[in-house]
Amino acid sequence: MRIAITNLKGGTGKTTTAMHLATGLAAHGRTLLIDADEQGSATAWSQLIGDGCPFDVVTDAGADLHLRFDRLVASYAHVVIDAPPHDAAIVRSAIQLATNIVIPLTPSAMDVNRLWPMIELATTVHRGDAPSVLVLLTKVRPHTRTLRITRETLDEMGVPVSSIEIPQRELYRTAFGTIPNDPERYQSVVGELLRKEVVAA
Ligand SMILES: Nc1ncnc2c1ncn2[C@@H]1O[C@H](COP(=O)(O)OP(=O)(O)O)[C@@H](O)[C@H]1O
Ligand SMILES: [Mg+2]
Description:
The chain is an alpha/beta fold. The protein has one domain (2-200): P-loop containing nucleotide triphosphate hydrolases (Rossmann fold, 3-Layer(aba) Sandwich). It contains 10 helices and 6 strands. The protein has helices at 14-26, 41-49, 65-68, 70-74, 88-97, 109-113, 116-124, 145-157, 170-173, 186-200; strands at 2-5, 31-35, 56-59, 78-82, 100-105, 132-137. It has a 6-stranded parallel β-sheet with strand order 3-2-4-1-5-6, with helices on both faces. The protein starts with a strand and ends with a helix. Adenosine-5'-diphosphate (ADP) binds next to helix 1 and helix 9.
């Protein structure tokens, strides 16, 4: 499975999600994380983990990832790409490598409004089969009006949204530099993605 973690907005939990999903997928097969954000947060995080990092990491913020990494990704069971915000060319390239797109989204009317260009990219840019798209709500504050309105709006937009929500928690904020460990939520997202892959095959 090749998952591009994308959102053209920054700070939505892309890197946190990429690190958790790569760790979860590494238990199911050899896994590569491509850090395509020039800020290099996933690379720094992995380096702090050191030798115990359960997946390989390459750092490359190029707009031709899909051309240069086609070979490399084929030697891995799973690939996770941590895409940058604000750089549509790199995001396009990441999407062209992907079988799945996970869009971390922080519930807010403004963030949902800004999701359209991302959905448009995710559904129009691809080589071969279109990747399957899944919005993952992050930094969620349960039982809020914002959460309800966000879910309603996404529903009206016809965008697939995971039933699993990643709450706003210190656990995630302090995970930087450590091997991510979230058996409850992110692990369930990995399970959801792998199950869908089996069904689609
Ligand atoms: N579920 C969460 N709860 C609390 N803080 C979070 C959560 N997910 C991410 N964060 C924090 O939010 C900030 C942005 O997250 P990050 O994963 O770097 O987003 P992005 O890669 O989209 O810019 C970081 O400080 C991170 O620790
Ligand atoms: Mg990031």
